[in-house]
Amino acid sequence: MSEKDNKKTKYIGKQSIEFNDPPYIISASSVAGKKEGEGPLGSLFDVIQEDPMVGKDTWEEAESELMKQAAEKAIEKAGLSNKDIRYLLAGDLLGQLIATSFGVAELQIPFFGLFGACSTMGEAMSIGSILVDGGYADKVLAVTSSHFAGAEKQFRFPLDYGNQRPYSASWTVTGSGAVILAKQNCSNTSGPTIRVKGITTGKIMDYGIKDPMNMGAAMAPAACDTIKQNLEDFGVKPDHYDKIITGDLGYVGSDILIDLLKEHNIDISSNHMDCGKEIFDQEKQDTHAGGSGCACSAITFTGFVLKQLKEGKWKRVLFLPTGSLHSKVSYNEGATMPGIAHAVIVEAE
Amino acid sequence: MSEKDNKKTKYIGKQSIEFNDPPYIISASSVAGKKEGEGPLGSLFDVIQEDPMVGKDTWEEAESELMKQAAEKAIEKAGLSNKDIRYLLAGDLLGQLIATSFGVAELQIPFFGLFGACSTMGEAMSIGSILVDGGYADKVLAVTSSHFAGAEKQFRFPLDYGNQRPYSASWTVTGSGAVILAKQNCSNTSGPTIRVKGITTGKIMDYGIKDPMNMGAAMAPAACDTIKQNLEDFGVKPDHYDKIITGDLGYVGSDILIDLLKEHNIDISSNHMDCGKEIFDQEKQDTHAGGSGCACSAITFTGFVLKQLKEGKWKRVLFLPTGSLHSKVSYNEGATMPGIAHAVIVEAE
To answer: Structural domain of residue B313, as residue ranges?
Structure first.
């Protein structure tokens, strides 16, 4: 961490930043779909939308509405108004981010659109933290969404086909999660304060996986690389974190991640958690490899992880949403599925 | 600009940042397609690719190759290697940014994927400047691309249809432009140094336009809003800038922009320039409303605008790429086309 001596240099190691003035997470919201509401974390979400169309005419509009509700809920919970938010950082899985554009347009907040596939919440929280730590904003809003039906239509098969899904396939989470990052701890909740202490930004990793029904395998190498780099950059061991929380590797990808890290003599088997494994009951809910989508990590983080930190059950976590950077077109053209993972260090004080 | 008194606060007005330590543009590159090479700016581009497939098998791979070449060219021109670049900020128009992911994966630079449609170069240079000014990076690379054939396939009709295009339709630019932003002026070129003095980040503006063959009309309100806000936030008049340079409003959108600003008593008719109008010869090249696409503003900026600043012809410009936030799906579902524009103040010293 020698660069830290120079106050103007805020980065450390190869790919990380340690914040001088770690941003506070002053508010968070989770809007979940019906199936997510019926899962193990169901009771923790702010809102459960029983109607998959959320009162709209299309899946895409439904997803926009989920994002709008999550953004507004986070602002409302913080006792703020739209005008208090300096930047909005958001993204989703749909081509040209239409769930986002139509979801957040009305908020009229200066907007940076982000795409990191299912890693987008990590990307949004990373850039959001930089904006706040650097003095470019007092408060920023990071929000992502996904919708099972919209994602199936976008990436796989029309729902009406009723196609069979292999056990390595994941189930896209319907929902949206939002956090507000702030310079001052103006949270109106009691308990410990929650801060983003640092980030490790991922590189694109491509191990040649081509099966969109096995995204866990495509993303595991990226998660491995980001975790390895985080530990190296900060000079810590895996047990520095109470939990190392991947986004949506699911059952297949999580096993691969643990094996890949063992090749580097890094053992995270005792403190690894994957949002994709937590959000559904694999047996009862027929969700095969687990949950996925931008909302998988977003609502698990806002609904579950933050509460564990608030309640003092965990003190420090490494949260790293994972994304598979493929499209219907790239898949049909025979391209591989590169992965990426963006890590955020979140601590309770 | 009262907030400036507090050194920790770097933002001004409603939507702008004035950099304390303005990043230097130390290198830039432009890779253009054949048609762009035959246009009025043809002699200014670093590379002209005569082959629309750039030696690849698909339009998408061709676009990835353009971006890879632009990124590598900018790094090479600066006498740097990939390892010297702390962050890569990039995006394109294709669903799930596949031109970008496959184009930059090999560079192995920590990567933030961005989507602002054709405004992406403004977004990438904005976030890149924040990273450098804030001390989070010594050098960052911002790159965007587009490809005529890939965009037609994505948004409109297969080329083989040979469909007629209305005069309000724009022609997507084939190419890729890249800039390297740096903390130190380590440019190895002579002449004035070029710095990013500030940014104004756009909000999503939706005036209800629904015709993807008239994107200029969809984007003009966003350009109007960002310019108006920039002038207000910095407390300056339009003649503060030698040029106010929009991305790809084209002939139709540019006229609308000038009219919209006049309603606010702002007259930019004497110093407005639009990259979409500059890049093609409207009459000889049958390009109707002008050029568009992420590469339109990117290569016009890197190939033409920066040279005008370097040669002392202009001293200060407001560069604001403009984007139309629609997709094939949103269009087919009858949705509107919201627009966004991200402004960057670039000065020669």
So the answer is: 196-348
Domain count across chain B = 2
Q: How far is CA B130 from CA A56, A114, A240, A285, B275, in A?
A: 38, 16, 30, 44, 24
Q: Is the C-alpha dihedral spanning A336, B114, B224, B318 positive or negative? A: negative
Strand ranges in chain A using DSSP code E only, listed in sequence order = 11-12, 16-18, 24-33, 47-49, 87-91, 111-113, 139-146, 171-172, 175-182, 194-200, 243-246, 272-274, 291-292, 316-320, 322-324, 339-341, 343-348
Domain end: B182, B211, B246, which one? B182
Q: For residue A6, what pLDDT is reported? A: 44
Residues B317 and B346 sit within 8 Å (Cβ to Cβ): yes
A333 Cβ under 8 Å from any chain B Cβ: yes
CATH label of the domain that carries residue B283: 3.40.47.40
Q: How many CB pairs under 8 A join A and B?
A: 175
Question: Is A59 an interface residue toward B (CB < 8 Å)?
Answer: no
Nearest CA to A209 out of A146, A151, A173, A256 is that of A256
B69-128 pLDDT, tens digit per residue, is 999 999 999 999 999 999 999 999 999 999 999 999 999 999 999 999 999 999 999 999
Residue A5, chain B, CB below 8 Å: the answer is: no
ipTM over the 0.90 cut-off: yes
Give the mean pLDDT of B323-343.
96
Taking CB atoms and an 8 Å cutoff, what residues of chain B touch A108?
203-204
Q: What distance in Å separates residue B92's CA from the closest CA in chain A?
A: 9
**Residue A190 to chain B, least CA–CA distance (Å):** 28
B113 chain-A contacts, CB cut-off 8 A: 114-116, 123, 325, 340
Going by pLDDT thresholds of 50, 70 and 90, the confidence category of residue A161 is confident
Q: Which of residues 121-180 of B touch A (CB under 8 A)?
A: 123, 126-127, 130-131, 133-137, 154
Q: B126: distance to nearest CA of chain A, Å?
A: 10
pTM above 0.95, yes or no: yes
- The model's pLDDT over A242-283, given as tens digits with 9 standing for 90+, comes to 999 999 999 999 999 999 999 999 999 999 999 999 999 999
Answer yes or no: is B128 within a domain. Answer: yes
